[in-house]
Amino acid sequence: MNVVAIPSFRKIIKKLHPNQKKVLDEAVRKICENPNLGEQKVGDLAEVYVYKFKVSAQLMLLAYKVDIQEATLTLLHLAPHENFYRDLKTKNH
């Protein structure tokens, strides 16, 4: 499965520490193995899935889209829960 990150997601990755990047890489691997691992959202974000995982005892949310036909996983947003969905809606539109 191809993994693609939108430009704003790449900016977030640059700010992560190496140990946080390892945890993120593992989460992305799990999602590639099972794209339905995250919770599918409804309404404005109907095509978006959100996978929750812990980084250094902090809950992080990873938003992504899956295109089964093209076998592509698009990483959209990564952040703690606070303002996550508000920020995701602004980036998604």
Which features would summarize this protein structure in a list?
93 residues; alpha+beta; YaeB-like fold; 5 strands
Structure description:
It is built from three helices and five strands; from the N terminus they run E-H-H-E-E-E-E-H. It has helices at 7-14, 18-33, 84-92, and strands spanning 2-5, 39-40, 49-55, 58-67, 72-80. A five-stranded mixed β-sheet has the order 1-5-4-3-2, sandwiched between helices. It is globular and about 35 Å long.
Topology:
Elements: E1 2-5, H1 7-14, H2 18-33, E2 39-40, E3 49-55, E4 58-67, E5 72-80, H3 84-92
Parallel strand pairs: 1-5
Antiparallel strand pairs: 2-3, 3-4, 4-5
Helix content: 25-40%
Average pLDDT, rounded to a whole number, is: 93
Q: What value does the Rg take, in angstroms?
A: 12 Å
In CATH, what is the class? Alpha Beta
How many domains, as an integer?
1
Largest sheet: 5 strands, mixed
Kindly identify the CATH topology. YaeB-like fold
**Number of strand segments:** 5
- The CATH level-2 architecture is identified as 2-Layer Sandwich
Structural class: alpha+beta
Secondary-structure element pattern, one letter each: EHHEEEEH
Q: CATH H level: which superfamily?
A: RelE-like
Strand-residue proportion: 25-35%
Strands across the major sheet, in which order?
1-5-4-3-2
Low-confidence stretches: none
- Shape descriptor: globular
Distance between the termini: 25 Å
- The DSSP helix count reads 3
Short structural summary:
The chain is an alpha+beta fold. It has three helices and five strands; from the N terminus they run βααββββα. The protein starts with a strand and ends with a helix.
